[in-house]
Amino acid sequence: MLTALLLALSAISPAPNASPHSNSISVSRIEVEGSRLRHRIELQTLSILEVLPELDLDGDGELNPSELELGRAPLGEYLDSAYTLFAASTSELPAPAQVSEVRESAASDPASPFSLQRISLQRTYELNAPLRSLAIEVSVFGVTSPDHRDFCTLAWEGQFEEEWLFSAGKPLWEYTPDPELSTRIFEAYLWRGCRRFFAFEVCSLLLLLMAACPSRRQASRVLFAYLLCIGAGACAALLFGRLLSPRILELTLILAIPYVAAENAMHRGPRTPRIEAGLFGVVLGISLVQTILLNLEQIPTMSGALLGHALGFFVSLFLTAGALLLLLPRLGGERSPADALAPNWLRGRGSILFALLGLGWFVQNAWFVNG
């Protein structure tokens, strides 16, 4: 989100040389972990030299490594006074921080205000006790660049991430984490996972895969392969991010219904559809994780969302699969062979009905939705 905001602002801001640094921007990240607080900030060298011109010893308008090292203490003192962090619930301030890192940042998009040289600094606070809340007051470059904006991300105990835009009109941010937030996010995604399983394409696919099997033992093996491949697809999406378009994943899962249903109807007897279970299981696993990854900006705690979504989905799947293993042998109708898991009418006429429904669902989603 911050990258998108920076690009948008760079597009509407004046060019760097059009006026005295009218597009002064910095990016901060504050990480609270127990009794330690780390503050990373990227500043434009031009902004720094406007308040600390003595750091530029050779007068070239930039800061070389030796100038950065010599400027470590002055930069730390300036940030201590202009970027203040303190416990919002008490009057006790964190211990003074030392600048533990100062370096030149990598070059960015030449069209951005950050095409100017920028400097990255890190300060580490060692606190007497874990923070319950935090207040941040920012006045960096307030005199030399009154329109300065700082894009700040606050990461709290590895669970929550919140964002704030500091400016002349919003110099103060008081943050108190919601102790119930992780629970509420977990519960919300737990129910989302349940609803995702009971979507037509997911439930129908499970029924068709199990109905094709000749026995409970074979159905259990197909179910195991299905679960294993769902997990593999989910892990791949977590490791590599967006692998396929959400649209392609959605339509593939819908097409799985008429495909498996047609295979069931064309076979005269039961079969063991391990390949279909594996293939569509991978697609489903990728889809499950990408649904969450595409909404990262609205999820303060990723781990809770993933855990809740996975638990809701897999609990629903296990319960439904167990119910099918119990109910399918009790359905009336002729079976061939006599000990087949599902009756012939479910593998035949029932599969044809599911194939038609799946094709209709595919056509509706492919051509008429958003069309």
Give the helices and strands as they follow along the chain. HEEHHHEEEEEEEHHHHHHH
The helix tally amounts to: 11
Percent strand = 15-25%
Mean pLDDT, rounded to whole units? 82
Which shape, going by the Cα principal axes? elongated
Strands ordered across the widest β-sheet = 4-5-2-1-7-8
Domains, number: 2
Largest sheet: 6 strands, mixed
Helix share of residues? 40-55%
Give the CA-CA distance, first to last residue: 29 Å
Helix/strand-derived category reads alpha+beta
Q: Residue ranges: pLDDT <50 for 5 or more in a row?
A: 1-20
Give the beta-strand count. 9
Question: What this model shows, in words?
Answer:
There is one protein chain. With 371 residues, this protein is an alpha+beta fold. The chain has two domains: 9-14 and 21-175, no CATH class; 181-365, no CATH class. The chain is 49% helix and 17% strand. The protein has eleven helices and nine strands. The strands form two sheets. The chain has a six-stranded mixed β-sheet with strand order 4-5-2-1-7-8. The protein is elongated, with a radius of gyration of 29 Å. The relative contact order is 0.11.
Report a brief summary of the structure.
The chain has 371 residues and is of the alpha+beta class. 49% of the residues lie in helices and 17% in strands. It contains 11 helices and 9 strands.
Name a few traits of the molecule.
371 residues, 2 domains, 3-stranded antiparallel beta sheet, 49% helix, disordered N terminus
